[in-house]
Amino acid sequence: MPGEISLVDLIDGYFTAYNSARLREICQLLSREVMREGVTVGLSLSGAMTPAGLGVGVLAPLIRHGFIDYIISTGANLYHDLHFGLGLDLFASSPFIDDIKLRQAGKIRIYDIVFDYDVLLGTDAFIRQVLRGEVFQKTMGTAEFHHHLGRYVREVELQLQLPHSCLLATAYEYGVPIYTSSPGDSSIGMNVAALALEGNRLALDPSLDVNETAAIAYYARESDGPGVEGKSAALILGGGSPKNFLLQTQPQIHEVLGLEERGHDYFIQVTDARPDTGGLSGATPNEAVSWGKVDPEELPNTVVCYTDSTIALPIIAAYVINQCPPRPLKRLYDRRGELLERLKAEYQGAQMRLSVPAVPTYPCGTRRY
């Protein structure tokens, strides 16, 4: 090995087997086929990624280069992302520090990241202040909710003259919709619930999220222009509920709505979950084919790397940004209403063509009343 070597040469020449080879395959597949015009890239995000600085340092730059078109994230990742947008401090520490002493000192620990309890209180105060605004006094999906939240935090970043922009603020600026599959399962959701006790009229509608993401996936295969074939890519960091929410767009289309669909064209996952426990986090692309989540003809375009996402993501991002020119922005946030109305029309047309028996017949040959 030479004394000096570029990241691209290191990956292409020395990531030769086992999970290093899978990571090389992900980098090469993304740079050669996925990160090109015409492919709609959905990212699912789980695990404590933003507290580690990967929202500001890695995901935001990928958005600015046009490499992420929509996101499904845990609420926790978005909550901790806000710390960076508000100029609050998180510190590198040790996983072996005494947690009793931390509690006594008013410190919070996420493995080897430590920050003051006041960081939580300050972030909560910002969320509650913002959510009392008139724009939030209605029922909405989480994409609209996060868009407005991103606008407010972007204003704070500009006032503080921060040298970076957090994930929520960047997504707002670049028209990338961010969905949360479990909006009540985070400190953001906890603050929404607290304000409801005050009479706040904000209500988050998960059905809007299900249908909007299905519409994005359904129309991903439309041509972006002459000679530009539309395709759909699922880029999965970790697993859990965000992974399922991203992949369930396909069963929603063909199983529930009754529209023709063949599954995502690309399935790329970084995970530390095993497949043999039966959990969704470790479920393989082959298994996803049986659900109609992945196009069976595209199995060669599926890769799973079993490693820590905090190792893989910076490497993947650096490789792709080095190898690929920026893509035109799709600004899917701005197209949500249009795509949803078109999906609604397709669904209503399919329902009119179906002949549904008034009383369902069950496999045993009996009828249930």
Write the SSE topology.
Elements: H1 7-14, H2 18-34, E1 39-45, H3 54-64, E2 70-73, H4 75-85, E3 91-92, H5 99-104, E4 107-110, E5 113-116, H6 117-131, E6 139-140, H7 142-160, H8 167-174, E7 178-180, H9 187-196, E8 203-204, H10 206-218, E9 231-237, H11 240-247, H12 249-256, E10 266-271, H13 285-290, E11 302-306, H14 309-323, H15 332-353
Parallel strand pairs: 1-2, 1-9, 2-7, 6-8, 9-10, 10-11
Antiparallel strand pairs: 3-5, 4-5
Helix pairs in contact: 2-14, 3-8, 3-14, 6-9, 7-8, 10-12, 10-15
Describe the structure in your own words:
By secondary structure, this protein is an alpha/beta fold. It has one domain: Deoxyhypusine Synthase, CATH 3.40.910.10. The protein has 15 helices and eleven strands. The protein has a six-stranded parallel β-sheet with strand order 7-2-1-9-10-11, sandwiched between helices. The longest helix has 22 residues. The termini are far apart.
Q: List segments where confidence is low: pLDDT < 50 over at least 5 consecutive residues.
A: none
Strand tally is 11
Strand order of the largest sheet: 7-2-1-9-10-11
- Tell me the strand percentage band: 5-15%
CATH class identity: Alpha Beta
Shape: globular
- Largest beta-sheet details: 6 strands, parallel
Q: What sequence of helices (H) and strands (E) makes up the elements?
A: HHEHEHEHEEHEHHEHEHEHHEHEHH
Number of helices: 15
| Average pLDDT reading | 90
The CATH topology: Deoxyhypusine Synthase
